[in-house]
Amino acid sequence: xxxxxxxxxxFTLKPVARDVWIVDGPEIDxxxxxxxxxxxxxxxxxxxxxxxxxxxxxxxxLEALDEIGxxxxxxxxxxxxxxxxxxxxxxxxxxxxxAAPGVAERAKGRGVRLRVDHRLTDAAPEAWSLDxxxxxxxxxxxxxxxxxxxxxxxxxILTDLIENFEAGKxxxxxxxxxxxxxxxxxxxxxxxxxxxxxxxxxLAGAVRRMIGWAPExxxxxxxxxxxxxxxxxxxxxxxxxxxxxx
Length: 246
What we know:
Strand order of the largest sheet: 1-2-3-4-5-6-7
CATH topology: Metallo-beta-lactamase, Chain A
Helix content: 10-25%
Low-confidence stretches: none
Strand content: 15-25%
Order of helices and strands: EEEEHEHEHEEEEHHHEH
Mean pLDDT: 95
Distance between the termini: 50 Å
CATH architecture: 4-Layer Sandwich
């Protein structure tokens, strides 16, 4: 049975737009708070599948993925989202692994086995440059996250830059915690402790670029994601920044 804070059915492909799906996974315990997990799947124009922030491995899920295309890219988008990448890489030897800055070092420091075939940069690699734009959000030495934009469907794919926990899925004490942290639905945003690690001018520049992509929808790793009005939700979530500056 799925935990109350998750988004069942779990380990199930859920269509978002043409060639884009999400798969909700089980909760993890991070800093004594239950975090629901979510993977985004994109079928590239090559037919290959691109898995963003892979959730816990499931053989049945792999079979479902194989029905829509071969898994070829496993993406660890930031220093907190890499735990299951190697399990998927072991199960799919033909898949390549891609990691944001700091991921390989974090995994090594924690004794987590992780093969990193490629480091993510500001430029989309040839493997998906026809489908996805990307950048490494600057301004923090701690949180370096790769964000992606699927141009054909105007879908922005984030990980932790916005969290949007639904109060009804949380115990009472965590409703207070997420409200204070600024990452509770409908006001989901970057957690206040994460904001303190960023240079606001650099972060604002990155958010302006994301707004310039004009996303219709914004997928998040944790909590309710935004099916519509993506650009407006970006502006709201990052209203603590000067987004109208140069």
